[in-house]
Amino acid sequence: MSTTLQAAPARVAPRRSAPATGVWLVATLAVLVLAAATSVAFGARSVGWNDVVAALAGQEETVAQAAVASRIPRTVLAMVVGAALGMAGAVLQGLTRNPLADPAILGVTWGASLAVVTGIVFFGLSSATGYVWFAIVGSAGAAVLMHVIGSLGRGGATPLKLALAGAAITAAFSSLVSAILLPRLDVMDRFRFWQIGGVGGANTATTLQVLPFLLLGALLCLVTARGLNSLALGEDVAAGLGESVTRTRVLAGSGAVLLCGAATALAGPIGFVGLVVPHACRLLIGLDHRRLLPFSALTGAVLLTVSDVVGRVVARPSEIDVGIVTAVVGAPVFIAIVRRQKARAL
């Protein structure tokens, strides 16, 4: 069986009617609300509904109420990070025309992780604001390096070469992270769970500090949605339609880097969300990035919130980090995409 990831001939995306898209949007919002309520009500500790109501009213007089109160910022963080990774994955797949593009697979997430760990060990970083600047620089550096390596040789930056370059960067950067942390047991103990990816250490103040970076990244991605639609037809066609290919690539890539860097600074490297979510959304609403990007954000929030709940419930009284749960969910999807015959760029 042969599998190719080379760019496919330009094709027109099947359009979904506005009513159908509206139905899926309302349904996704309803599922997100339900997932958030479930995240607050269920966790490693069993609590009663009276404790849930009391905690939502601001009371923390009992251990159960305090446990529920601690789940609120955790739930918000899971939704924010999931939305960022879902949208970033859709943008990266659109930019590279590669169905396997994902912030973790392309090395962007691990570039942020390496930068953050370097800042912690060598520069004494201890705040979310410091993390996010290093994470964004690391994400940008990894993205540029991935594109440079993928552009070498005949044919330029093909989807297959970009995927291979990203896989090599991921392996190299993850090894460097381990090499930096292993001699520093104090830092290793503090951040070993952060490396896996999780939202257990959430607090409202930290999320608010990073939120402006996430909003700016989302805005940059959304304003390039029409340009991403043009790029799906090929660079020559996009240029013929009056689209500035370079501007679209720079703005969309910058938005994806901001989203990946800020999300990694908050929750560590979480994989497969940016891979699974855009594919699921395209099946429901089509390929129009003007709808795909916000829908991917909502679906990513749902996926990460539900994954966090599953990790807390199945391992009671302990818990499984959300990065492990998303890997369990995403790995089969990744294998299925790779095994598809004649896999084509988007």
Q: At the first level of CATH, what is the class? A: Mainly Alpha
Instruction: Estimate percent helicity.
Output: over 70%
For this structure, the CATH topology is ABC transporter involved in vitamin B12 uptake, BtuC
- C-alpha Rg (nearest Å): 20 Å
What is the overall shape?
Answer: globular
Structural class: mainly alpha
Provide mean pLDDT, rounded.
Answer: 85
Q: Which oligomerization state do the chains in this entry correspond to? A: single chain
Strand content: under 5%
Helix count equals 14
SSE string: HHHHHHHHHHHHHH
CATH architecture: Orthogonal Bundle
Transmembrane segments: 21-42, 72-92, 104-125, 131-150, 162-182, 202-223, 292-314, 320-338
Membrane topology: Multi-pass membrane protein
Protein name: ABC transporter permease
InterPro entries: ABC_BtuC-like, ABC_transptr_permease_BtuC
